[in-house]
Structures
1.
Amino acid sequence: MLKIDNLHVRVGGRDILKGLSLEVAPGQVHAIMGPNGAGKSTLGHILAGREGYEVTEGSVTYQGKDLLALEPEERAAEGVFLAFQYPVEIPGVNNTYFLRAALNAQRKYRGEPEIDSMGFLKLVRQKLSVLHIKDELLNRAVNVGFSGGEKKRNEIFQLAVLEPTLAILDETDSGLDIDALKLVAEGVNLMRSPERSFLVVTHYQRLLDYIKPDVVHVLADGRIVESGGPELALELEQHGYSWVKDRIAPAGAGA
Amino acid sequence: MSAESATAPATLAEAFAARGLDLPTTRQERWRYTNLRALAARRFEAPAARVDVDLKVIADIPAPRLVIANGRYAPALSDLHGLPEGLRVRLLSEVRRDAPDEAAAWRATDATGPDAAFQQWNGALADEGFVLDVEAGVRVEKPLHLVVLGVEDGAERAFHLRHRITLGAGAQLTVAKHHLGVGAHRHLLNTVLQVELGEGAELSQARVQREAHGATLIQRTDAVLGANAHYRRLDLELGAALSRHELDVVLAGDSAQLDAHGVLLADGRRHLDTRLGIEHRARDTRCGLIWRGIGADRGRAVFHGGILIAEGADGSDAQLSNKNLLLSDAAEIDTQPVLVIHADDVQAAHGATVGRLDDASLFYLRARGVPVAEATAMLTAAFLREPLAVLANEALEDRLTAALDARLADAARTAG
């Protein structure tokens, strides 16, 4: 599904990712944890195709394709979805109109027929009822006037409608209270399937109480320094990130 | 007439000189960004006696509807069904014939001096226009559509129109004016509009300018608002080679209000120059000015937002926002907000920006699968729609939104 091999990324002259390697199989949920500044958000952005990042070494292969060679909209149509840490407010662009344009653009790319407005409305209503989202969000401009929780749920709603094969959740738990967190996690769990993989990027362990990962990675100083099962997240919760620092030093000295 | 048409018409510069006028130059502050040198050398013929226009050009513009085509009233295209009582509609040609003194008096308030040369030229030559009067207390619900067509007819012509809208105390009217081009003509349209709003009168006015790519439009609007009057207007500048509009509004009575919004879509090689001159001359007057501009391709948008709050106009409130998007390196945008305050206890704010499309918004749309061209069009349309909510008439607003969207879709097709 996704294979990241020795990825080095530079932003504004600074090395952020320094040899990150990771492999995700279909249906798996991988959690990426790490302290602030470890490169967590950079990973999400580079996979989605944001400009301003320079790949100096390494590769990203997604379903056998060179992901880094694709435009952001091509990656989306290939099934890559990034749930933003800070969803952008776009005044004047209607939420439903935008999502239908996105879905139809993806379908067109894949050679599938477009969905008309009636069919789309039906699809949307079905997803809304499953996710317990108020349909008033549909008629507003994209994320404008949404609370923090509503913005994150709108991301999950988009995820549900677009049905990607790889969903990257970039600190989707940040800024959420426990009730909002549970709702978001519930939405994600409903989307889990043997064909769909998740990369859950988070600073805190608590999201992983609700979204059970198959694999947990610790990202520090631009590399994966530790990988393990769900118990690794609990260990981090107990000891904090300070103990991973010991593991960075040798590699850092070598670089 | 026959002797005149036998010889080639004079250049525009010569035509002005013959009347003791000079064409404005970029050395004049008010014309600094609009160079008329190429125009000065061109020769424009007088209006022809008649012009043939296909009805379908105006088919989607509802009645009541009045049409002027190439400077002449077109009764066959007009439809006065449903013209409400209390709204008196006349043509300038009728008034000149039946009440010449009345028509002459309308020129008395024309500005003088070199900056207003086009207005003076209009004063000498204007022979057609819409003259609307609404009686005191009459509220006209249905919008009246005024259509001014420029039609290709094998010649380059100059037309001079003068319109007047007068609302009595407490009267209300909604007017939509459509400047449309038929064929690839290069006419020059020189327009003066005079607006007088009595105490508590309300005028909502839309102006959609979608003239031919070769057309030149010079317009001056002079409005005077009485106490508690409210003038709402929206200008969509979407066409022509050159369109210059001077909008001068005097808030003469206490608590008079102006909401003047607009869109300047300067793509192709279009030059759009809008110059606002708003004067607060009475207490507690208010103006809200929201303008959005696009500079694309080799287009140029010029915006001047002049607000004067005169001595004694205490408690006035003036808000001006002019935001622009520069979408090409060869395009140009000049924006100049000017606020002069001589009164006390005034609230005034103005902001002018020129920027690019927001990268974060563009990436968000693309990351969901919207191709970059479509995402750009979506954000551009959203940016331009903001001023549209001003007319207090939802049906008309929907119509204008559709006109704007259609225009943007055409631009996208041409670009693609």
Note: The longest strand of chain B covers residues 172-182.
2.
Amino acid sequence: MKRLAIAALLLATVLVQVTWAPRITVAGAFPNLALVAVIAITWTAGVRQGMAWACLAGLMLDLTADGPLGPHAVALLAGAYLTGFWVRNLDRETLLHPVVAAAASTAVYSAVLVLADDLLGLPVPPPAIAIQLVVAASVYNAALMPIVLGVVRKLHSPVTRRPEPV
Amino acid sequence: MLLLAMVSEQTWAAGARGAVKSTLAPLEAAMTRLAGNVDRVTAVFGDVSTLRAENQRLTAADQALRRQVVELNAAAKENATLRQALDFERSYGHHMVAAQIVGRGPDGFSRTLEIDHGTADGVRPGMIVTTGAGLVGRVQEAGPHGAIVQTLADPQSRVNVFLSKSGLQGTVTGGPAALQLEIEHALGVSASSGEWALTSGVGGGYPRGLVVGELASITHLDSSTSDPALVAWVNDPAAISLVLVITDFVPS
């Protein structure tokens, strides 16, 4: 039931991303809500769950993009893996960590997406434009991360918190 | 995932890929309608605070419009000649299918739109997409009930254009902020801001005479064979909701 709810939430996030998000473009970039949601899930629930949801969200994004199915899923998996690696090696968490992790994961996601497109023989943007877009998207996603992380933690905590043994 | 990507990329899988992609189109259409309703509701709150500023702006605009009416009267004769020369009849004489935009590309690298008409409605990859204002782009992929359109803002987009007054030719490419134009030099002629860029038909990719945008700024480079310029696109991709697909123009 919980998994179905998360899947529905991710579907809604993807739909919002392809209908609303492009309206709030800054410096040519708009927020990647699916990526931020996957990073927040990975940060909260761990790398295994994060990568599973990254796969699903990526396929949903591929359904709305031109080209073959898979590049967005591969790119989201890479972003989720980096976040998982980050959170696993963390001694003490501050708000800065997920924010910087979101920026770094956005950069990795974008690099893998461009690389996957290039490998598949699909057109890729010129390097100067790609770098400009990646920097803008990283800043944008990092700014959104605290809000999305707060929402995901709120949704996650009541279900996963088990009662203390008497 | 990479295997899936490689398999779904094959030409024989294009039909199945298009059909699978069409499954999300109704949900995107519903979300787009919801977005429109939410926009209308939130606009009410913003309206009150912006009315005063709007009033001042309209007063200034009224004065500017009075001046423009005088200028337009003078330009009317020139405009009629231009219209004939650019052969607008040919560009608007094509058969078109109206389609609603139900979604936009999920990442910033490819500026695409998703429309609610596909192969079942006669929409095929390669067809040209416009609005009443001018050129939007080209159909990249088509499923049975949806299609993905590569817009002019896409960094991969290339359109050959000519300028309405100087007649100079160039190529418009997409960009994250504005359309980039490289204008080829010609002896004794120079381009100036305010000129309209229209598709030239060179290369056979687009029909001649479709409006692309207005020349916003130009940098004259004597040492180069072309001048870089910025074009203000007639279509705002974030604002358009309805497009026309030209179904009887075959790009060469």
Note: The first strand of chain B starts at residue 96 and ends at 104.
3.
Amino acid sequence: MPEGLVVEHLHVSHRAPEAAPGSGTGSAGGRGGHPILSGVDLAVAPGEFVALVGASGSGKTMTAMSVLGLLPPQVHLDGGTIRLGGTDLARARETELNRVRGGRIGMLYQQPKRMFNPRRTVGSHLREPLKLHGGLRGARAGARALELLAEVGFEDPRWCARAHPHQLSGGMAQRAMVALALAGRPELLLADEPTSALDTVLERQILELIDRERRDRGVGILYITHNLATVSAYADRVMVMDTGHIVESGPAGAVLNAPQSACTKALLDAAALNPARTAPSATEARPVVVLDSITKRFPSNGREARPAVDQVSLDLREGEILGVLGQSGSGKSTLARLIVGLETPDSGRITGTLGADADGTGAAGSHVQLVFQDPHDSFDPRMRLRTSLEAPLLRRRDTTSEQRRMRIHEVVQEVGLDPGLLDGFPGQCSGGQLQRLTIARALLLEPTVLICDEATSALDAVTQRTVLDLLLRLHRNRRLSLVMISHDLSVIRYMSHRVAVLFQGRLVELAETEDLFTGPRHEHSKQLVAAALPRVCAILDAHRLPQEQVDALP
Amino acid sequence: MRDRPVFVRAATGILVLVVVAVAASPWIAPSSPAEQDLAARLLPPGSAHWLGTDHLGRDTLSRLLDGGRFSLVIASLATLLTGVIGTGIGVLSARRRGWLDEVLTRTNDVLLALPEMVVALFLVAVLGPGFLSLVLALTVTGWTPFARLARALAYDVSARGFVESARVLGCSTTFIVFRHILPHLAGPLLGQAALRFGQFLITVGALSYLGLGVQPPQSDWGSMLAAAQPYAARAPVGILAPGLVVFTVALCVTFLGQRLARMSSTRMVLNPASSGAVADA
């Protein structure tokens, strides 16, 4: 057998607390409960980059957690073996697992900032694995920490070592997390969606970083993601997971070229957001929202604050889809909040040409609605969905509860959901369903403008596609003007008629979509477009591999 | 361990027993709490007097039942008042922000810096002992922990997506506060209320012990302790009985309150994305 990680016949199930036997001896006979993983086999050889791809809820993260022996309390390992270079992790004791975690296996998480203790500096986080797994202390550990930070691309490692997590941007935090994962000199890196929350430029940097470790030090990499496009350029092998099974596995080229299972095909389709529509350039349409050199500054302690939004002038035309593109921290969300009136601009004017904008709160009251990024957070977890949807309608005294009920059912069906869902709580719905419900909730107020602030970024590729298509349908049927805010170029390209590029709070480019993607003018736009993994897009667009990758196939 | 049903049932049982007994004391007490019998002073527990008698020959059990009414009612009333006032102030601070928040928070800081007992002593001394002045004395400083907790939690909840969505959707402030924010504060605030109830029970006892609480012939658990103290060596039951009752009731309420707090936060754990956000205070 080769070295590296070998997982065989892994069975994991969820058991409700009352179903768990009090005298559970861990015998394989009691295979009760709801199965999460059913017979997962996978192997990662040293120096190999394996991508584990699947929609959310397919069991990807649970696979990683089983390897680390960190399954949640009600989830049990029912059977199978997990070996890492001869050690059986499924049966290892806690002390042994502690030597493996952070030592032989490094871990990257989706939300690096939440994985750092906010009260401790990055340096002190790094010294811990160096002490535990490398036996380094004091000045030597400090020096090694600086080396690691320099290695992951920090220009000023000393600053970073002294920084607290909140001082780092998302991309910096993820790089610091890579340094942390590498500190124990791992044989294997488990990366659980480490770039899903990052924009394309940063995503590329992190992938390059991980890939360099693989080449230089022969680290095996298990990269978990829901986005096939991201990893296809790096992965040696791709495994596709669906409802706890590995449904397809093979060399990256073969899987991409000739997908066998329906699940893989769906993922591929979703990844290839072809800009198939002809964009009707609505130059003649009248503007519905006009921003006139808007500036917004947030007070910040001591430091000279750069405005979050700086002199932005923009107009949204009736029936148009306007894409707003920018990296994290470029002021996209602030712009959205300004338009709906959650923030007031320091200077400049926002005017809506429709409806009651006289009160000065935002553009147009309920005429402009906002869909947030995190659908789970957009609903009160303690409130029945029906109540959540009905709440904004209560202000209109002219409707009876029966009318409201009918109206809600109509709209919920319009977004493609079963009204039966409404009697449940948000925790019982998937992210995709909840995001449809947020859209339905906004539609109940009959808006003319819908702003989607990274509305699909938290969703997996397949769900994202369906939500985007829903938005397009609503746009057509209701003549809804949409503002699509995203860091994801493919989403912007798929949806928008025109694209506005934001960089450090300033509007640096405003162009027709195709013009931007074929000939970006501003330096920053060029950078963004270049980072969009063009090679991968080409593969997916054509569903075909370039020659050099076909040659490389075994 | 803390959630074992045995403990929960025991704590509930003890509390119900104490409350019922105290409420029914005029009917079930073996004798009048004020009836003196100087011939039967400082008796040990026996068949005539289950918990013995005090230095004036009054039946300890009857006095315990009668005095409990006073202690429990004051502690409950003070908890309720401080809870409502504190939560109101805290939520107001968090929603309005700006100068109002600043003023309320600084007031809170100042009050927290003063020892609660000293302020209560001062107020009772000025207003004269009595039921209302005791409630007032406890309320004036007692709202501060509720306000701090409510403010911090309301700040957190206000920043959550669903509150922002509600604002964008044009929900009224009343709806946001009563339907979105307060339900999320309920768990931690209940826990806090239980802790405070126990503390109030003890503070009332302490004030009475110092002679500033109830005035004779009315008694409560604290004044019973005070009265029994000089005779502790001769009749230890006189001091043990009220002390143990205060201790047991405070313990049971605290325990049940924390359990309630945990129960009310389980509903949100259904949602994996937000579990632990406002779980425990």
Note: Chain A touches chain B at residues 340-342, 365-366, 369-370, 372, 374, 376-383, 387-388, 391-392, 394-395, 425-428, 438, 441-442, 445 (CB under 8 Å).
4.
Amino acid sequence: MTLWTTVLLASGLAFALKLLGYVVPHQLLDGVVVSRVTAMLPVALLSALVVVQTFTSPGAGLTVDARAAGLAVAVTALLLRAPFLVVVILAAATAATLRALGWG
Amino acid sequence: MPAPRLADQRRKEVLRQCLSVGVATGAYGISFGALSVAAGLNLWQTMALSALLFSGASQFAVVGIIAAGGAGAAAVATSSLLGARNGIYGLQMSRLLRVRGLWRVPAAQLTIDESTAVAIAQPEPAAQRLGFWGTGLSVYVLWNLSTILGSVVGNALGDPRQYGLDAAAPAAFCALLWPRLRSGDARAVAAVAAVIALVVAPHAPAGIPVLAAALAAIVAGLLPSRESRALDDLTDPGTSPDEEAPA
């Protein structure tokens, strides 16, 4: 497979996957149970994404490092009703500081 | 559009969120562009990935596998496993956006973690749509520009981890999910999904842990709700009857 083939094939498949959700007829999705499921799907997937981005490293299984500290600070800030940008900046600053100090 | 217009204050709030998510991902685009060129892709191939594939996790997987000398087929397979979740987001985004015909093409292309997260963080349908399109476009533009920058000048900013950007991403998604977690059902779904992902992650290829977490949403949808007003919470405002009128 040439590099161009890889690039275009991966791109084509990615777009086909994205389009999939938009070509399912709305009538199929408007039932009570199905609409409860589809409303919850982004919540489930994004929650999973948060833990995967925080606690996994390629080829290393589960890890607890500076990212976990960043997330803990973010959750604390959210509990204290901090605004979005403050939450994100605090998390990044926490992880960056810990790494500068040589941890995680 | 039948939806009421957003107050200026809310509009600004949502747009600020869209832009800040775009800027944060843009910083990663520089690192992507640099890694891609280092992996042996040329400038055009690197730009094609950001413009056409446009899904960060998949793009990093493709150049990572190529850099490690892996087969093209493995790169395509991993990219698709990671991209499959965008199709699942599309099921709900299609309902919120109510796009028809050719508008489904840009909507699908912009359906990624970031645009979905900003959309579902908003309580009112007009803000959900603004959040989706605003985030999708700001990430698209900044991601593509920073990809070019990174592939031409190299990793000018250094390792994004040095700035804690790898902690900023999950913190941002957590903050965007936060307003939804006021509902007990959504809290349960988020908690079970997180556990599923953690249990599956050490044993499955990239992409699978997040997909497996969909099970939490499916089970929650099938079980009777624990909350009397759960239907209002679970079904986004976009599906209320007054929103069914054609756009």
Note: Chain B touches chain A through 101 residues (CB under 8 Å).
